[in-house]
Amino acid sequence: MRRVSDERAALEEVEGDVAELELKLDKLVKLCIAMIDTGKAFCVANKQFVNGIRDLAQYSSRDAVVETSLTKFSESLQEMINFHTILFDQTQRSIKAQLQTFVKEDLRKFKDAKKQFEKVSEEKENALVKNAQVQRNKQHEVEEATNILTATRKCFRHIALDYVLQINVLQSKRRSEILKSMLSFMYAHLAFFHQGYDLFSELGPYMKDLGAQLDRLVVDAAKEKRDMEQKHSTIQQKAALQDFSTDDTKLEYNVDAANGIVMEGYLFKRASNAFKTWNRRWFSIQNNQLVYQKKFKDNPTVVVEDLRLCTVKHCEDVERRFCFEVVSPTKSCMLQADSEKLRQAWIKAVQTSIATAYREKGDEAEKLDKKSSPSTGSLESGNESKEKLLKGESALQRVQCIPGNASCCDCGLPDPRWASINLGITLCIECSGIHRSLGVHFSKVRSLTLDSWEPELLKLMCELGNDVMNRVYEAKIEKMGVKKPQPGQRQEKEAYIKAKYVERKFVDKDSASSLPPEEGKKALCHGREEKGLITSKPGLEDQVGTSGKSLGVDPFVKSNDSGIQQCADEAREGLSSVVSANSLYEPEGERRDSSVFLEFKHLHPGLQLYRASYEKKLPDMAEALAHGADVNWANPDENRSTPLIQAVLGGSLVTCEFLLQNGANVNQKDAKGQGPLHHATVLGHTGQVCLFLKRGANQHASDEEGNDPLSIAVEAANADIVTLLRLARMNEEMRESEGLYGQPGDETYQDIFRDFSQMASNNPEKLNRFQQDSQKF
């Protein structure tokens, strides 16, 4: 009994030892798996690090020592990565794979033998219990129980021997498998470190030589540092003895620089936003352009695309010192230098670049202009592309075919490709630059090939021309014995153009009446009495139509009333037809007889401009402006109506555009509180409404009756004008809500206004049709 008890205890001890062994092996395999995964991640990171060393070596290609050293080190480290990879592979085979096989196969066999042993042990216990329970008088049952017990014991002995054998096998194999796997793992490490040692043993002499070079480099660097400190101290001593501004004179410019940069340096630039902030930027004059960069590697931002088209001048009307302004065709740029000498240097550099560009690149620029061709179509084409503004050769051809426009208006150079849109003349590239220097209140210059042309601007150019304007501005040139400058004489050109357009020395001022406005109006009425246009009727019906009262014009004027109102109404009685609501173009058949009025030259310039605006006579309007007429003159006898309002009443889109380009106030009201937009809305002039909205008309302004243009258009059921006004109002609200002040608006808004502009200038009959369709409803 004691022996059986000892065997049972030993068996339980072995079973417990095997269970603990299984736990230890499972834990070791999991740790090995984690180590292998971490090692692979380390290899990946190490490989990326080595790639970074290679990149640094390529970047240091100019330094042979650095490039060679980094390349050699990266190759050695890559070898170590390969050795690490081999080590992790061998670890996976020796530890993970071998121990997992031992656990899954040998320990599983032990567990199966244990289950069979426990099952047979239970069956033997049941046979013993059954054999003990049999009664002695039941011989048959006694024999059966005895036989079962004997068979069960035999089976138990057999299974027990197998179980003991499996235990012994496991105990023996456990030792070999564990030691075998660990020995393989250690040999893998031995090989890894041996390979690493061999690798770095070969690299050792090179590293030793490199260390010696580094020692020399450190000594050289220390010596260079001392030299630099000494130079720095010397410079500080010199700077203490000299004024800082004297060093500014070292900044030089070279128009023949090999890299194309004439001059460069830091300047302060005033932003064009509402805050007018100043920012320091790196400016340079290069390739006939003025550009700046926020940072050294940023792409340059072009301030002036062509220096030939700009002017530069001092600015003393700003709070900051040393400021100067560069004015280009489309914008002006306010700049500030660090000192007065730097400002002078920059101004001189810009001026020299302009002169050089004219001298050396003038012919090239003309050739480029001739080669430029449009892609958006001409005025006569039926192209329905999204860009409907006139550009390129179409504008050039239409404008140059006007009499006198084939040569420059001021110097006579053939094939001019620039124009002054408020004067209606063509200019060569050199004269256009001089016109820009006069200021936009004298001349607004635009390219006939490079800029976009709105249809109303193009028609304005076609209404005037060089011959017409020269008859006004050069009327006395022969009497005074003045000769026009020749191409290439820039100084002579500047003096001549200034005398012609700013001082107006060549205008025949004797042709303008010296009569004051009141005397001019009397002369106008007296002339009409002689022509039989004034009758003694108690009242005359105004032929303007039913909208006359809305415009502040009494349709019935008594014969004893004085002033221009009576004369104008009596003259209108002779008209055979009413001005069309949408007559935005001027066919010859619809022009009124000029005999209705006296010659405008007998009038005061303001009154001349006033009447010529109604009569759609742009040459007479240009002459009145040349004689000093105020473009915003208000007629006190016609409800303080302005020339722009008269142009609306006359129904001419081009006349309105001419006045606007020459400084007419688009929001100036008459005595009734109605501005040009009100009058155009009342008369149903859709094209004029579109033009005024594009030129900044205030559609929220109300007349003395509290009506704004939108309410007038809604009451008149003019669908086109309502659409334009509402679209402009929505666009304005959108820009205000999004903070897009000064921006044109979204593409839909721009497209619709382009469509109306094209239609009003080129196909006004379509607007007439729309107007008729809207009136049907």
From TrEMBL:
PROSITE patterns: ANK_REP_REGION, ANK_REPEAT, ARFGAP, PH_DOMAIN. One of its GO terms (molecular function) is zinc ion binding. Residues 373-382 have a biased composition (Polar residues). The keyword Membrane applies. Residues 4-31, 107-137 form a coiled coil. It is a peripheral membrane protein. It is found in: Cell membrane; Endosome membrane. Residues 260-355 form the PH domain. Its main location: membrane. PANTHER family: ARF-GAP WITH COILED-COIL, ANK REPEAT AND PH DOMAIN-CONTAINING PROTEIN 2, CENTAURIN/ARF. This is Arf-GAP with coiled-coil, ANK repeat and PH domain-containing protein. It comes from Sarcophilus harrisii (Tasmanian devil). The lineage of its organism: Eukaryota, Metazoa, Chordata, Craniata, Vertebrata. The gene is ACAP2.
